[in-house]
Amino acid sequence: MNVEAIGKIDVGTHVTGQFAGMTFNLDTIWSTLAAAAVVLGLGVWMRRKMTSDVPSGIQLTWESAVSTIENQVEQSMGLRVAPFLVPLAVALFFFILIANWLELIPSDDKLVAPTSDVNTTYALALLVIILMHAVSVRRNGPGNYTRHYFRPSPALFPINFIEELVKPFTLALRLFGNIFSGTILIALIGLFPAWLSWAPTAGWKLFDAAIGVIQAFIFALLTLLYFSFQLSSEEGH
Question: Distance between CA atoms of 192 and 2, rounded to whole angstroms?
Fold first, then answer.
């Protein structure tokens, strides 16, 4: 492997299209739609196959995820405080998981991991953070919501404000960085000779699949924790 070959690695480029003066990453869009279709399809299929007798593997996986998230919500703030968090976190977990795993499917780069595009992770993060603040304002009123930025002391307002401001960036970039790094490493392994590349590629794809699960779980967990900190702290005050 030489430096010139490394310099020719094509990572982070997209199939683009123009509309209304804006550029769209078409490969990210159709991969996102594919991930959403898989999640919806699995949900419909599981609903039809759901049974109280011997559950299928997908039903066990779904029930385990729902049970884990319900326990986390109950421990952090109580299910009665924010029952909508369970379906939100479950949907985020499975969508991000499938999105992370798309790059493992051989497709000649037609299917990419949407989460390796920072535009997708920013959209997911903004969805979570905007919803969190909207729920906080609705639950506590504009006055109480505004006052929590000045607690426990008005002098801490800049720190509290910056802390809230950086949340969508940290949430988005954590997911993007981990998935994008996997794409780079697979591209590097692709430079190995054919007789050698199969071994590290297979090993890395297994590791990358595990990373996909972990990152989906972390995103869902941080969503719960952000809501918990926001709602619990204001209730305490």
Answer: 10
Task: Specify the long-range contacts of residues 41-50, CB closer than 8 Å, at least 24 apart.
Answer: 42/94
**What range does the domain containing 122 cover?**
3-236
**Model pTM?**
0.81
DSSP one-letter code for 111 = S
What is the Cα–Cα distance from 138 to 145, expressed in whole angstroms? 9
**Residue 123, SS3 per DSSP:** helix
Core vs surface per residue 45-75: b (16+ CB within 10 A) or e = ebeeeeeeeeeeeeeeebeebeebbbebbee
Residue 8 has pLDDT above 60, yes or no: no
Helix (H) or strand (E) run with residue 41 in it: helix 26-49
Nearest to 147 by CA among 234, 232, 226: 234
How many domains does the chain fold into? 1
Q: What is the C-alpha separation between 163 and 171, in angstroms, rounded?
A: 12
Q: Say if residue 152 is preceded by a cis peptide, omega within 30 of 0.
A: yes
Encode pLDDT of 73-115 as tens digits: 888 777 777 788 999 999 999 999 999 998 877 766 678 889 9
Q: How would you write 69-91 as a 3-class SS string?
A: HHHHHHHHCCCCCCCCHHHHHHH
Q: What pLDDT score does 197 carry?
A: 56
- 3-class state of residue 151 by DSSP: coil
